[in-house]
Write a structure and sequence with these properties.
Elements: H1 9-25, H2 32-49, H3 58-76, H4 82-96, H5 103-118, H6 127-147, H7 156-180, E1 203-204, H8 208-212, E2 218-224, E3 235-241, E4 243-244, E5 249-250, E6 263-264, E7 277-280, E8 284-290, E9 305-306, E10 311-314, E11 319-321, E12 329-335, E13 338-341, H9 348-355, H10 363-375, H11 379-393, E14 395-396, H12 407-415, E15 417-418, H13 420-433, E16 438-445, E17 448-449, E18 456-459, E19 463-471, E20 475-479, H14 481-485, H15 488-491, H16 494-498, H17 519-540, H18 542-554, H19 559-583, H20 592-606, H21 617-627, H22 632-647, H23 652-664, H24 669-676
Parallel strand pairs: 14-15
Antiparallel strand pairs: 1-5, 2-8, 2-18, 3-16, 4-5, 6-10, 7-13, 8-12, 9-12, 10-11, 16-19, 17-18, 19-20
Helix pairs in contact: 1-2, 1-5, 1-6, 2-4, 3-4, 4-5, 5-6, 6-7, 7-19, 10-13, 12-13, 20-23, 21-22, 22-23
């Protein structure tokens, strides 16, 4: 028999499967060497079990722990943040695999496996990811079942079947708890890192948008209360860049804005600068479901007004969340596409910000911009002149040539090939050099209309950069130089424009976007996306759905009513389990002859002649002969009848004769006492 401390073979099998599944679930957000170390540790444990290798020594284990810590610090730069913390826990998890000596060590690792697998939900809550998490819990449960098995000869499939049965039995109660128990906030706060930013970042240099243009990942989805506006009107404003160091555009520090608070929250009085927004025409209402970006900035159409208490409007007319978006976020917005921004005047300090250029960069562009401004004093005509140059001589491409120190000079008067950030950056630089206040705006443009679900799907390849120039009396005007070079970029989907060009989706080799030209596969892609979107809306809005359901069912949400509902619904949920346990209980295997023999033994026990455990019928009879000789004849008769019925071919008559003889057998204590005298 296997010792209690020993790890069973099928338990080790499912334990290693659980570790490998955990590695696969977290592969996207772990340093590759951590995943590789986990695989090596699993192989090491297999060799230990086969007695091919020896247990690592204490010095080696401490060295590995130190190497993991140093590697994580070098990879992330610091140990605060979601990904570094998960990676640190994961490193300890795989190192624990190297010191499993007893079953208790394996159990600790299995409990950690549950935690590691659930942590995947911090990174993704899509319907696919949620199903993978549920499926990944099954091997861990199978490992627990195998660890508590009584023999070492069971097969892995046996533990898996038991784990599946336990999971199915637990699911009704799980659903009851999910529906009835109120939602609570996080029990802890996990700090985030800017290094985890996904999509548009807080700065822009040549090539940044080009990289996003090769990714087919979803950035966000938008559902409008009415018809979706035309493609050329869909400019999703995300960040405004006013600071330029010669190569990189960045946001201007909020303290540089000297006309009041930088952020305006919905529950606060309107800031003075809100009056500088002239909103006209019909309001456009919509809801944005943003994927995790690990950054606080949001995306919306022009002149957005937030309808969420956690979303603010910034001084540069964009939306900002109160904390980084670490999971899917849905926020309602109202926008006015017809508007004017700061049409009356700009103070001197704003002029200085929006005209600032770094010294020593792009001398040729500075000189030509001044010359053109002298030749074309009208700003609108100057803009048209520069856009005309773009239209005649420039090429829009996903593979622009690299640029050196004087990026604008090299692009405007040399390569003349670039992506949207090249055009926006050079246009704004030229306008500033000509004395016209200008800035860069980044976000997304357009989107893919879902043909049946009436929502807009915006991908990372829809990332876009454009310019805004300020003209007195008109305010900030959007100018998109890309539209002058490639007008179809603004009028049709980016995917339709670049689908056949080299480099498109090179950063997403497994994206179904590659198969959009195959009709049935494209329909499947859109159907899967619609399912994922419906799941996301359900998850994000579940708290309201739950409250409405409980209010309708209970008439009010109080602890007493919740407790009664939980007891009632929990009892109903567990009823099938009780029925299964009752039906699968150990049934009596005794036949009629055994039941009659037990009655015979009971009658003898009542007079003080109890049968010993494991004592056979003939040995029992021999002992009775000695203790109560007067019972020899009836006891011998009953014993012979039992042996004949049991050990020869059983016949109904034999059992019946034993039953008749037993009916006449009525021993008393007198027989025992008289034999004792």
């Amino acid at each position: 028999m296997r010792p209690l401390w020993q790890i069973p073979r099928d338990g080790l099998f499912w334990l290693l499967i659980s570790v490998l599944i955990s590695i696969a679930l977290h592969f996207d957000h772990l340093p590759p060497w951590v995943a590789l170390a986990g695989i090596v540790a699993a192989l090491w444990q297999i060799q230990l079990y086969r007695e091919r290798w020896r247990q690592p020594g204490r010095l080696l284990k401490w060295s590995l722990a130190g190497a993991c810590g140093a590697g994580l610090l070098l990879h992330y730069g610091r140990m605060t943040g979601l990904e570094p913390m998960v990676a640190l826990l994961f490193s300890g998890y795989i190192l624990k695999l190297l010191e499993i000596h007893h079953r208790r060590d394996a159990l600790v690792l299995l409990y950690l496996s549950y935690l590691i697998i659930i942590l995947q939900s911090l990174f993704s809550t899509t319907i696919g990811a949620s199903l993978l998490v549920l499926m990944a819990l099954l091997p861990v449960t199978a490992a627990l079942v195998a660890m508590h098995g009584s023999t070492d000869n069971s097969r892995p499939a046996t533990a898996l079947r038991t784990a599946l049965s336990m999971t199915l039995q637990a699911m009704p109660l799980m659903l009851v708890m999910f529906i009835v128990m109120p939602r609570i906030g996080s029990l802890w706060a996990v700090p985030q890192q800017n290094s985890a930013t996904t999509g548009v970042s807080d700065s822009m240099s040549p090539g940044d948008m080009t990289q996003l243009g090769r990714s087919g990942a979803v950035a966000f989805r938008v559902e409008f209360d009415g018809p979706i506006p035309a493609q050329h009107k869909l400019y999703w404003r995300g960040l405004v860049f006013s600071s330029f160091d010669g190569r990189r555009w960045e946001q201007q520090a909020s303290k540089a804005y000297q006309d009041g608070q930088f952020l305006q929250w919905p529950n606060q009085p309107l800031a003075a600068w809100d009056k500088m927004i002239v909103r006209r025409g019909q309001a456009l209402s919509y809801r944005v479901t943003l994927e995790a970006t690990h950054s606080p900035w949001l995306f919306a159409l022009s002149t957005p007004v937030s309808r969420s208490s956690s979303v603010a409007l910034s001084r540069d007319f964009r939306l900002v969340n109160n904390e980084p978006v670490v999971s899917k976020l849905q926020y309602p917005v109202t926008s006015w596409l017809e508007h004017q921004l700061e049409p009356s005047s700009l103070p001197d300090w704003r002029h200085n910000i929006e005209l600032a250029l770094p010294a020593g960069y792009n001398p040729k562009t500075r000189a030509i911009a001044k010359q053109w401004r002298e030749e074309t004093p009208d700003i609108a005509a100057l803009i048209d002149r520069l856009l005309g140059l773009f239209n005649r001589e420039f090429i829009y491409t996903l593979r622009p040539p690299a640029l050196g120190k004087h990026t604008v000079d090299e692009f405007l008067w040399g390569t003349k090939k670039g992506f949207c950030e090249f055009y926006a950056s050079s246009f704004v630089f030229f306008m500033r050099a000509a004395g016209v206040p200008a800035r860069v705006v980044v976000g997304y443009q357009g989107g893919e209309r879902h043909p049946s679900e009436n929502y807009l799907l915006v991908h990372q390849y829809d990332a876009h950069a454009w310019a805004e120039v300020w003209i007195e009396g008109q305010g900030w005007l959007r100018v998109d130089p890309t539209a002058a070079v490639a007008p179809q970029r603004i009028e049709i989907s980016f995917a339709d424009l670049f689908a056949e060009r080299e480099g498109f989706l090179s950063a997403s080799p497994f994206s179904l976007e590659h198969l959009r030209d195959i009709d049935w596969l494209n329909k499947l892609r859109l159907k899967l996306d619609a399912m994922d979107y419906a799941w996301s809306k359900w998850v994000l809005g579940y708290e309201n759905i739950q409250n409405d359901f409980l209010l309708g069912l209970l008439g009010g949400i109080t602890p007493q009513r919740i407790a009664l509902l939980l007891l009632f619904a929990g009892g109903i949920a567990l009823l099938p389990v009780f029925i299964m346990l009752y039906l699968s209980r150990e049934k009596s295997t005794r036949d009629q002859l055994d039941r009659l023999f037990l009655q015979y033994c009971t009658r003898l026990e009542d007079i003080g002649l109890a049968r010993k455990p494991g004592e056979g019928p003939r040995d029992f009879a021999e002992r009775i002969y000695q203790r109560a000789p007067s019972l020899t004849v009836p006891v011998d008769t009953l014993t012979q009848l039992y042996e004949s019925a049991r050990y020869s071919e059983i016949k109904v008559g034999d059992v019946q004769r034993f039953k008749v003889a037993l009916k006449a057998f009525k021993p008393s204590r007198k027989a025992l006492l008289s034999s004792s005298c």
